[in-house]
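Memo to structure team: turn this sequence into structure tokens by end of day. - J.P.
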Amino acid sequence: QLQLRESGGGLVQTGESLRLSCAVSGRTVTILAMGWFRQAPGKEREFVAGISPRESTSYMDSVLDRFTILRDVSKNALYLRMNTLKPEDTAVYYCVRRNAYYQFDYWGQGTQVTVSA
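Reply from structure team:
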């Protein structure tokens, strides 16, 4: 059974950086298409970044050039490196797996990121 567990969230000031981690168990991270979603209070959940088994990455426009998605094979983990954080990045961030049908079918419990102005 695939399990995803996020960590690394916290409270930071505008312009600072954070790195979110997602510990993957039950599957090897390199064979998975994975990504990060976020959900801010009162808003719908939105796609932030994704990475394919062939290392192709994609990002939502508002985080392009600020966020980087990457994985560490030795630790079987996925990361989201977030630079130049803004208050509008405040949200709960979720690690997800995308299956062969392009459905996001496994989700972690989420980690809170709060960016103060």
